[in-house]
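Build the 3D complex.
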Amino acid sequence: MNSFQSARRDFLQLLGGTASAAWLTANWPALVSAAEHAHQAAKSGNPALEIFTADQAREVEALAACVIPSDETAGAREAGVVYFIDRALKTFFSEALPVYQKGLEAVQKTTAELFPGVPRFSAATEEQKLKIFSHVVQESERPESGARRLAPGASPDFFQTLRIHTIYGFLVDPEGGGNRDFVGWKAIGRDPSHSFSTPFGFYDKDYPGWQPVSGETEKK
Amino acid sequence: MSRPMVTYKPSDEVDFVIVGSGAAGGVLAKELSTNGFRVVVLEQGEYLREKDFTHDETKIFIQSLLTNKVNTHPITFRKSLDETARKQQAVLYGSCVGGSSVHFTANFWRFHEIDFKEHSKVGDIPGATFADWPITYSDLEPYYTKVEWEVGVSGLAGSSPFDPPRSKPYPMPPLPVKGNGVIFERGCRKLGYHAYPAPLAILSKPRAGRAACMNCGFCLGFGCEVGAKSTSLSSVIPMAEKTGRCEIRPNCYVSRIETDKNGRAIGAVYFDAQRNAQLQKAKAVILCANGAETPRLLLLSASNQFPAGLANSSGYVGKNLMPNSSALAFGVFDEQLNDYKGPAVSRIMHDFYELDPKLGLYGGGGLDARFDFTPISFALNGLPPDTPKWGAGFKEALAHNFTRTMQIFCHGTSLPVESNSFSLDPDVKDAWGLPALRMTFRDHPNDLKMMEWMRARAMEILDAAGAKTKWSYPVQEQQFAVHLLGTCRMGDDPKRSVINSNHRTHDVKNLFLCDGSSLVTSGRGQPTMTIQALAYRAADRITALAKRGEISA
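Done.
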């Protein structure tokens, strides 16, 4: 448990306690701000790799950076996606390990075929990487269903697996081991705060309050 | 907080053993223990508290922290009775104290008068086992009010011209409007429809020692860390425990309802956390295990005396599954909505609750404006279909659309079809060696047609509201159920229903069922409010029966 988690747990325990409604009303903003401070203070260095070798991690990081590149805002690299994937393969995504092993071999092969002389994917130029990665995607891409459902688990397909894991590692609550310092959330415009007050955005800013349609109270 | 916790031994014959601590089980536990009865609630899942909840999607969606776990409880699916079912996560339900109420969206719509007597109005529908309820809206109205005031529902009474009559206003004002609500209102107004503040089982004001919603945005799928969501866990279960007569016993997987030679239930057999079989003895048994597990448990309780399963002389146990139909439309707008803040839904409309018969469609539905994505689920499923799947184009679309997207969700009726059912899989077993849950389902063609009609209306509303981009997907046959309704339906005729209007099974005098399985029709897509109102009513009926000595006699 990191410092943020324990701080957050403590503050939530407070709320689960015997606090009265009035007490909550009075103290809520202070509690939230304390939690957010703890949240922001939880800076972490790179955790140790447990599954990938340093070489493999370098390749996975370069591949994840193709899914979510770094530009003016952070990408998969800055979010520490490779460390998220490493931890996932050690724990809840362990069944996907062979997908990575085979996938990395295939990428190496494609790199050698397309650009003889480039020793490995991560050593290719950005332009070369795009070509190699497009090739990997074409080989493995399958049509995605339009179904709006809970996030799927590991796919047997390398690109799909890498893509889903990169998205998870980029956008998961940092408690889940990715999205380091909330860089993923910031990149998509999600304020990392733990609570919000109105107005939330542009459209509700000047909302006059709910009014019945043409003032009617008629029954159907 | 230290809660006065009573514990019973399995050999203690308590008054009631309740299986399941969700929307219905929590209410029954509270009501019956308050009325002086000794109650044990057996819950399959863990006893998680607010402090255990998290926004970590790997725990919620991948490791199923709050929901049924298919690695130990496999589920199989097939479309028709002549197919062999295959393993598939076809059902999602809550598996923790509080059940599905812990992770629900909290849309709390009352059913309308028509939902209870639609068969009389419309007549038979080919392919459907369509029936009226043995009770009416007015029988249930006081209990809807009780849910609103005791469990905690925010809303604005009188804001919909289509609402059924109510005896009291909501106890709290609606939650704040979101961008999706303002835009939805705009579109509806242009087309002459009536959008209004969504009634939600989420506290808009601090109440009964619980905090108000802090708009964290992790609502659907997640447990509420501050107890503002009106789950059984945050509302009625603490009241039940406070009576000192109710024990909530987690990690208990019930495998069978035991009966004696007279055909009376004597208690529930369960595997405890150490996988030891136990029998909790009770004078009466109440199943609130949800519309999938309640019928499964009755089928698992077959015996020489009840060869087709317990309480199944009608053959209706597990049948007539109605998961509600749905369709979804997406819109992207010019400015930022930031709809990731706050509960998913802020405005709904019920103009299509009863469709014009001239359309040739049965039933109807309700629409809500929502954004129920987390950052991850948005990246996976929230972008227009033609968006690049990786690279700069993908990232750009994510960054632009995440704060500018909303959805219109169409919810509607499912017709009861006898072959749509839960049964025991003949081949697949769970981790305890019990037959797995098997779902057989194909939507009634009318439901698909009606939803297509509804989907087109949702697209028109987005258009009228000025969406810059909009899209939706054609309605498809469902292979995934969350609303588990109708599978042990209520009725006066023991040949065509499983329980009577007191929730007592027709076959076993001291066995009661109350959850989504009790419903006769599916309403218009938001069943939890009705499940809880039924539970309050059932508690009154069961209490009266018990006090008159009509259960144990």
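Confidence is low (pLDDT under 50) at residues 1-43, 142-155 of chain A.
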